[in-house]
Amino acid sequence: MRSALGGIGAIANLFLGLYLCAVGALGLVVGGEMFFPLVPVSPENAAVALLVLGSFAVVASVLAISGGRLKRIPQLGWAAVLFLGLTAAVFRGDYRFDGLESFKAHGWMLLGSFVLLCASWVRFKTPSRKRSQY
Questions:
Q1: Which of 85, 106, 108, 127 is most buried, judged by most C-beta within 10 A?
Q2: pLDDT on residue 91
Q3: Would you list the domain boundaries of the chain?
């Protein structure tokens, strides 16, 4: 059960990274300014920031899926940064909720990032499987 939770967390992290890469690439292709209020960068640099964050998430997920405990550290770090970033966004002075729906959406993202952090911790603590050698 523990390894399944950790594996699901790694795959969810992979899809999140691919989504961020797609949004960042779309922003670069379309050009212009991109307003993404959860990432504290200027609108001119938001697409590049999303592409970099997404790329790191993809690499961290692939490493976490592929190998031993040391390769799982980047995914755990990414999950911690994501959770702390979403938590810090609430307390930034320039971030405002547009209403109840915006507050609910942020709450769901915060809950999802906490679950991802827990799954990353479980994945980190789960011992590696011994591979049979033929």
A1: 106
A2: 79
A3: 2-125
